[in-house]
Automatic annotation (TrEMBL):
Family of this protein: Belongs to the bacterial solute-binding protein 8 family.
Listed InterPro entries: ABC_Transporter_SBP, ABC_transptr_periplasmic_BD
UniProt cross-references to PANTHER family, sorted A to Z: IRON(III) DICITRATE-BINDING PROTEIN, VITAMIN B12-BINDING PROTEIN
PROSITE patterns tied to this protein: FE_B12_PBP, PROKAR_LIPOPROTEIN
Entries under Gene3D superfamilies matching the protein: Nitrogenase molybdenum iron protein domain
Protein name (database record): ABC transporter substrate-binding protein
Amino acid sequence: MSISRTHHVRSHRQSRWLATGLSTVVLGIAGCGADVTTTAADDGPTDEGYPVTITNCDRELTVDRAPESIVGLMPSQTELLVGLGLADRMVGQAQTGTYALPEEVAEQVADVSELSTDTPPAREELLEAAPDAVVAPTTYEFTGEQGFATLEQLEQAGVTSYVATGGCPERRNTAVVEDLLTDIENLGLIFGADAEAETLAGEVRGRLAAVDEAIDGADQPTVAQLYIEGTSVFAIGAGVEYDIIRRAGGDNVFTPDEDLFEQFFSAAISPEEVAARNPDAIVFTVADDAQEQRVRDYLGRTFPDVTAVAEDRLLAIPASDVFPGALGNVSAVESIAQVLHPDRF
């Protein structure tokens, strides 16, 4: 069985996906937890409703007026900005080669400059676009050692930098799908798009509630979420990836309370470990159809007696759907739930 959307991530993106989480740990920038707050500042607005102060990744961000020159540092964030009605304020989009935007979104940003294709933009390229706000999925996009503009450098340049709640370093292992709602609310406040944020949040809540209603009372198949690179196997046992399985009505065989995932949401494991846990289903992220086939071939060769393989319950999802702060998180919940519980949809 295959779960797909219209966009895919290139193969190298899978390694970057794992590296991103590791980078956020190494960076050591304090993360934001479930108690992310939004508060209106009370020292006199510059524009109507401003200034606004929010807390993001343990940083207090104060915005004096609605930003007018925005860069989405990943396609997932570009999609979210478009969903908030902000396409006409965008001056740049980044990492555009990592996966294609949905057609209706791509049309709205067709004239927006592409600052980078396969990696975040270099510091100079980003600053040359003269943004007054940037939105990123993780703190990896601000790694100075990689030549990217740091949070501090952007602040000095007067740029508001927002990181998806689930991509904050200390939040990465405990992120949940509902963190997307925090991002929608925060971005609505930052950009003065409160009405659009309320509408989008309502749509997200409605889609998640529909899944909850459909699978209510259903048995939970056991699920292993894996990342396969060649013959290397990584288990996913924490973060928004873990919560996506939970929200879809799956019982994760790898859990956040294991020592394996004490510091990082993913861990290298042996094939024997997968066989020992014998999941009913295996979910894995893919870059494209070719990679999906390679992973399926590997799983078939390596785990012929594991229930998931024997019963062909191998579920491929686009890697783009599991990045923090992505509307694709909801799509992943819906798609996985439909395959785990076909009789409920």
